[in-house]
Amino acid sequence: MHTVVIVIHLMLVLAMIGVIMLQKSEGGGLGIGGGSGFMTSRGTANALTRATAILAAGFFLTSLALSIIASHERGPSAVIPASQSGAPSAPAPANQGGVLNQLQRGAPAAPGPQVPQSK
């Protein structure tokens, strides 16, 4: 099911790219485009606009379907993982931990860079 929806989604994407590329350019910021185009009549403009809207709606629906399928394939997850035994875990030994844990216990920090003393 997932693969079928992805194939339909990709076909919609390619069709939408093709339909958008066929539409008449309105000029834009570069001052190019407009004038004569491949399809210049107003009837084809309306058909291309309608086709773009239909393809965009299909793209939107397949995107939603893919996200729903992905959420059903994923199992429930917890933000805080449960421990194996169900009891709270014991605190870490004093000799373990990162730099922040050592600083909280009052352990000396790592030595900084050596600065030569002037005579």
How would you explain this protein's 3D organization?
With 119 residues, the protein is mainly α. It has a domain at 2-25 and 42-73. 50% of the residues lie in helices and 0% in strands. The protein has helices at residues 2-22, 42-73, 99-105. The longest helix has 32 residues, at 42-73. The N and C termini lie far apart (80 Å).
Task: Give keywords.
single chain; 119 residues; mainly alpha; 3 helices; 0% strand; elongated
What are the SSEs and their pairings?
Elements lengths: L1 H21 L19 H32 L25 H7 L14
Q: Give the overall average pLDDT.
A: 75
Helix content: 40-55%
Gross morphology? elongated
Q: Helical region count?
A: 3
The poorly predicted ranges are none
Give a quick precis of the structure.
This protein is an all-alpha fold and 119 residues long. The protein has 3 helices and no strands.
